[in-house]
Write a sequence for this structure.
């Protein structure tokens, strides 16, 4: 199903701005309360699974844009985070609904001086981190850790002379710079600061068989845990030897996986090490220090195969499949297909790493790391119909489908395990020469309730306003709606409906329409406040009709004889979408 991008919507859908007049009987408070007693269950979102797309909201940031977008399954933009800098390159939504965003300064290779931002749902900048020193420059991907520290990929700024001393063939270096990759773990110390509390560097784990008079000389095939500084044996321009473009963290294993594109491999390292251990070959839970625990995709890189054994070609977005999704703990990767001998096409690969009973990666001496082939692959029926030679990504969804971003094709699509396309979206942002995206991520997100409509002055002052606590999660069942600033010590009613309207009513504005449902009458306190605990689970509760995916509009009606006028008024409204 193709969807057309929709520009950001206002807080109240214009299609719901009804202009019809109110029936005379509805001008009476009693008649209005009688109307609220009607309770007809509305239609609900269709069940997911099988050939249906996975519910959720999709996050993306075009590489030329300064704005991050969140869309629903229909393609409507439900939220944006405008910014100052372009993407550099990845963006993530966190559990508290804040946005962790890698940004790109000018100049800067997929990162640069702008660094990393943490942005609240309302756009407030909570944290900005810049590169820690002139000899380090972050780029591409970032990853949040359970302790809220952030992992980032970074270039280590070195010279060509450093590379030659480490054993690199001088004929394969163009220019005076050498920028191998490293990983930094950053701990927030203030709104514009952070400390590097752990680090790992590729150059601490290199080997070479080119020049016995230089450092790191050895037999490459005997050391698959090491990285051949002369692979690939191609000319490196600008020092970008590895071009690592993805990082992911496995909390259960305390391991990190990265994607060095130029090696056409994925690498797994131990994060349980100290920084000192990460620079060496012993220590950590694995006992191997910072050496590679596992690698896959191109056995040529460690002397265990030929071009015929290569499986990855300029890949992106290497990751462990999340818990709760089919294939959890397997590895998923977007295989771009750059210079693939079989032709220019992309694929998505799922692999099962070989481990023993103790959880250690297994390797037969002299052999290549398994598996010999992926456990699942997606490629288009006509392979060249799906091809993005750079950027791009894939994500396994809870229902077993896989969300794919074919970056240069400006195409997001979702496929079933059997390869059927059940959803697609073509990002097209006005004003950009193209809308290519580094990645797209789907979230089973509980959107915070949003204020809509308007309040009106009352006997207490500026008017009554709706509030909330807890979340709109059906499974958490902890949502509390509230009102403040209504008339003091007066009866009132929370009510809800499935449509947003704006109609003058009494001394205020009626903001809820469609099929409406009333909650029990309650008395405001002397400050004009009241609250109601929403119960999704009690079948006898009016709110039990609310199901995951439903959007409802809440408002508070209350008497206000002290204000004069009609003697009753209304608060503003809350729009609430129920999530899982």
């Amino acid at each position: 199903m193709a969807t057309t991008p929709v520009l950001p919507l206002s807080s109240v859908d214009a299609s719901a701005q009804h202009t019809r007049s109110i029936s005379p009987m509805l001008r009476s408070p009693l008649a209005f309360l009688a109307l609220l007693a009607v309770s007809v269950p509305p239609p609900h979102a269709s069940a997911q699974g099988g050939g249906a797309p996975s519910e959720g909201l999709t996050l993306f940031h075009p590489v030329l844009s300064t704005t991050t977008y969140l869309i629903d399954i229909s393609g409507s933009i439900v939220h944006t985070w405008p910014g100052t800098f372009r993407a550099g390159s990845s963006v993530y939504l966190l559990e508290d609904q804040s946005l962790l965003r890698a940004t790109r300064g000018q100049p800067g290779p997929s990162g640069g001086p702008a660094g990393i931002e943490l942005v609240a749902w309302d756009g407030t900048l909570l944290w900005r981190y810049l590169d820690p020193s002139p000899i380090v420059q972050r780029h591409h991907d970032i990853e949040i850790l359970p302790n809220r520290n952030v992992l980032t990929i970074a270039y280590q700024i070195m010279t060509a002379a450093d590379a030659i001393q480490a054993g690199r063939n001088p004929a394969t270096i163009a220019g005076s710079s050498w920028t191998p990759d490293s990983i930094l773990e950053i701990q927030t110390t203030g709104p514009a600061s952070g400390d590097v509390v752990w680090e790992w560097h590729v150059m601490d784990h290199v080997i070479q068989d080119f020049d016995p008079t230089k450092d790191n000389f050895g037999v490459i095939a005997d050391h698959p845990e090491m990285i051949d500084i002369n692979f690939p044996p191609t000319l490196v321009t600008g020092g970008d030897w590895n071009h690592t473009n993805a990082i992911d963290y496995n909390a259960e294993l305390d391991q990190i996986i990265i994607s060095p594109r130029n090696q056409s491999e994925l690498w797994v390292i131990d994060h349980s090490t100290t920084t000192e251990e990460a620079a060496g070959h012993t220590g950590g839970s694995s006992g191997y220090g910072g050496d590679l625990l596992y690698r896959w995709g191109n056995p040529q890189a460690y002397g265990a195969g030929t071009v015929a054994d290569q499986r990855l070609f300029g890949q992106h977005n290497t990751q462990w499949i999340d818990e709760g999704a089919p294939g959890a703990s397997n590895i998923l990767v977007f295989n771009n297909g750059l210079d693939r001998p079989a032709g220019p096409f992309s694929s998505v690969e799922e692999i099962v790493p070989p481990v023993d009973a103790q959880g250690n990666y297994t390797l037969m001496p002299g052999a290549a790391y398994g598996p010999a082939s992926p456990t699942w692959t997606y490629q288009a029926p006509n392979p060249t119909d799906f091809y993005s030679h750079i950027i791009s990504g894939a994500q396994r969804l809870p229902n077993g489908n896989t969300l794919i971003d074919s970056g240069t094709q400006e195409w997001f699509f979702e496929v079933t395990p059997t390869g059927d396309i059940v959803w697609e979206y073509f990002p097209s942002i006005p004003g950009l020469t193209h809308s290519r995206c580094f990645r797209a991520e789907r979230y089973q997100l509980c959107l915070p309730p949003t204020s809509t409509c308007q309040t009106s002055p009352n006997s207490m002052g500026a008017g009554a306003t709706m509030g909330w606590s807890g979340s709109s999660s059906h499974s958490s069942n902890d949502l509390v709606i509230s009102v403040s600033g209504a008339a003091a010590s007066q009866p009132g009613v929370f009510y809800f409906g499935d449509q947003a309207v704006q109609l003058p009513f009494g001394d205020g504005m009626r903001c809820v329409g469609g099929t409406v449902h009333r909650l029990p009458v309650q008395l405001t306190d002397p400050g004009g406040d009241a609250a109601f605990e929403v119960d999704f689970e009690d079948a006898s509760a009016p709110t039990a009709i609310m199901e995951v995916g439903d959007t409802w509009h809440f408002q508070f009606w209350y008497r206000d004889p002290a204000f004069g006028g009609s003697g009753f008024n209304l608060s503003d409204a809350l729009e609430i979408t129920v999530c899982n």
Q: What stands out?
A: Confidence is low (pLDDT under 50) at residues 1-49. The CA atoms of residues 411 and 516 lie 39 Å apart. The domain at 56-130 is CATH 2.40.10 (Thrombin, subunit H). The chain has three helices and 39 strands.
